[in-house]
Write a structure and sequence with these properties.
single chain; 153 residues; Rossmann fold; 5-stranded parallel beta sheet; 7 strands; 21% strand; globular
Length: 153
Amino acid sequence: MNILYLSISGNTRAFAKHIAEYAEKQHADNPEMPEISLKEIHENSPFEKESEPFFTFVPTYLDGGNGLDNGDTEILTETLREYLEYEENHTLCLGVVGSGNKNFNNQYCLTAKQYARKFGFPFLADYELRGTPTDVANVYAILAKTFSAYNAK
């Protein structure tokens, strides 16, 4: 399974690495369980057309508004949105996983939810900040199930 992600503070990068390590252990115990390949997108990343299905992990950074009725502006994560738009890469995205800080109430994981709505792929899961080992196991299970269903088509 492929994961494209963007990390500003390092939280998303840490979670992505933890889930890749977890996947490696799962695969070692059961070779039918998928391993994970990571690709970090940042403002200096060369844009390229993706050729294989992937999942997107995106943190939430917004400016203004409450996320419901008085607006918000995506900040710092625009490069990932632009990468998904490039050559219609979003058509290969199997779903998005969001992260954020639950202290931000309605804005928690709002960027991921906005990507799901804009691009038409599912919002699959969320975790707070760097996540917990339970989050890693739960998100991996969701990704593996989604990936398996895609491959069964």
